């Protein structure tokens, strides 16, 4: 591994400048007018993969944004690692809260700032560079395949189909993914659980046009008041989701398992400070790491209706909307949850309004057992570069496609992520520490090494 | 009156084309960049008043948009009518729902379409033309003063101050206002009651920045969910406002008074059809005309927070906002109601969020007794032009400045309005029937006639 480590050290600056090139492309999958940027980003990645030593690197069409597929087959009898990452990023609004423009990356105070710096261009690109370092040094001990998609932030629908159609191409012993975080520098961790998601959009409508709230106020159901009342009924006073049968399939953890979870270092005061909340809140009977790790949740992600501009407009709005998502845990099924949600949401509407419910996307929860060979290789790699045994960690996030991989390809994924809570992913001023970028490249290289032992 | 009526008939087309000139000016008081349009509209009105025969017509400065003051003193010993109207209009969003541009007036199917066609350029301009017709015909039997303001839709704060400073100038026997509606062509009515208003804006904030809803969902209070829960608690299952002491000063009507109110023709099915609602809704124990006429109400006029664009963004929004107004009835005090609202709203917040409450504007409710000489003159004028005795009507709307006039000038107002429920005021495709415009001009002339008998 000496040559690989030396190669990484020697090429650090070029690695960073190549990443900056990717970060400059505004590949926002949620915005339909970004198609040319999505394509440009995919092509640039294919070019970088070829340069890094791939035997082939192709921009492959899907029903949505293209997938970049690349591979280097060292020898058919060697184990094969399939790397998954995504090159699409989240929208950047509210733009006025960014200190520097989201698509003009720069390093400040040891951090790379820009949309995608962590999620997932920064983390994804570490894999391209770890692969390059090992291939260039003649130390690559296994076959490597890459599958880089452009729709993770909008539900990976096209990739799911594409995987089904390319099962043979994607044959692998393990899938390696860096799209998660660690507890912290002092407490390295490997994510062994992800929550699923069911993302809904609802509309509550009443009058055919906005009404004068003086002439009609008190005589008709106001769609915004109604929407608020209906949303209020989605959760109860104990912080639980009030949709009937929502918890029927939620896995119950033993007292021993919960003790282990609660043993991970967690400082509630530091947690509150880091996100600026006056207090934590959530399901009664559970502590914060349990609330995000092993329990489901329901959040309104956006709401709008009526006059939202300057001044006072005295109307009863004709319509009100909300985007509402539920984070799911094993063994909840997002299709069933979406159905239960719609049924209940309709049932709490008053006769004065009409309701429509749309299912926007879904993903299943995922668990990675800690006794897999690949998990143990990842743990050894992290211990090597961070100097500490990593803790298994239940993340609250969702990477819906991970459970799809298991279902379609029959392969488990290892979630070897290097993000930190301070990276502000999905938010203004997303950033990624330079140190994590470089140490991540090394850790990935060590993973290949231990996995192929 | 023969000459007056003939004059109106002869000049109809010019009257309409002059009104179109006013409707073309986008005098939206809620938008701060419209100041030049406000001034232009005021100057145009002053010019039209001079042409109509006023001895003086001045654009007078206030702390806000200017007031147009005009007068014609026929003889000091004659009674004096002070006409009030407003030249500002509501915002026009959502623009895409207008069938023709809001500031390009046109007549279709016997209706004038455009922002302000009814509220209150159309109705206000009838007074300028009724005055012109009587003055030009030598049949004006009283003194007339005009006070036309540019901030009615945002609370009339500057006019209130201006009235206090111009008490002598504004001496009058009655104030005449056309800024309300009638029940219908077949059921002419005169508004004898208006609701007051307290308009608030609230903000609920949690984390210092938008959080990833996967990583944090279930562990912190979501400001949008919280705002919805708090709004839901503002009203109860009986459709009553849940703010403690909200009803303490609400005037209780006798069974006889309520019977009279319920005697006015009202067709619930036609009402529902005209505004497109599946059902009416409101306070238990009251029928629709009571709910809007003599009972208070609470409506969310706008709500916003989080991701409101295309696609799915998985965030816990840092902040959520709502504009909430309450319609008040005698003898509620808007200052006290605003205070009670704020107290209660803060009290229902959870420890996980911060709350801010802002009072945007307020106005007192108003009652005009039906035994006033001026009311009887208005009733005779309406009977003359509509062929039927008008019903006294309690409108749900608010014209906060009307109660200010009573308080500051000690003069009662007569609300001689000609709008119809189908005029879509404050909404897209505002319109005003041509027939109402012309018959209104005649009715106002008859009012002068009977009032001076």
Give a quick rundown of the structure.
The structure is a homodimer of 453-residue chains. The first copy, chain A, is 35% helix and 21% strand. Chain A contains 13 helices and 18 strands.
Q: Largest beta sheet of chain A, briefly?
A: 6 strands, mixed
Distance between the termini of chain A: 13 Å
Helix amount of chain A: 25-40%
Strand content of chain A: 15-25%
Uncertain runs of chain A with pLDDT below 50, 5 residues or more?
A: none
The DSSP helix count of chain A reads 13
Radius of gyration of chain A: 23 Å
Structural class, from secondary structure content of chain A? alpha+beta
What is the global morphology of chain A? globular
Mean pLDDT of chain A: 95
Largest interface: A-B, 102 and 102 residues
The tally of strands of chain A reads 18
Structure description:
The structure is a homodimer of 453-residue chains. Chain A has 453 residues and is α+β, with helices and mostly antiparallel strands. Helices cover 35% and strands 21% of the residues of chain A. Chain A has 13 helices and 18 strands. Chain A has helices spanning 2-23, 35-52, 121-136, 157-165, 213-216, 223-232, 255-263, 268-275, 288-293, 334-347, 373-386, 400-409, 434-451, and strands at residues 56-60, 67-72, 80-86, 106-108, 111-113, 143-149, 174-177, 189-194, 196-205, 211-212, 297-306, 315-316, 319-328, 354-363, 366-367, 391-394, 413-415, 431-433. A six-stranded mixed beta sheet of chain A has the order 1-2-6-3-7-17, with helices on both faces. In chain A, α1 (2-23) runs antiparallel to α3. The longest helix of chain A is centred in the N-terminal third of the chain and has 22 residues, at 2-23. Chain A is globular, with a radius of gyration of 23 Å. The two termini of chain A are 13 Å apart. At the A-B interface, β10, α5, α6, α9 and β11 of A face β10, α5, α6, α9 and β11 of B. β11 of chain A pairs antiparallel with β11 of chain B, so a sheet runs across the interface.
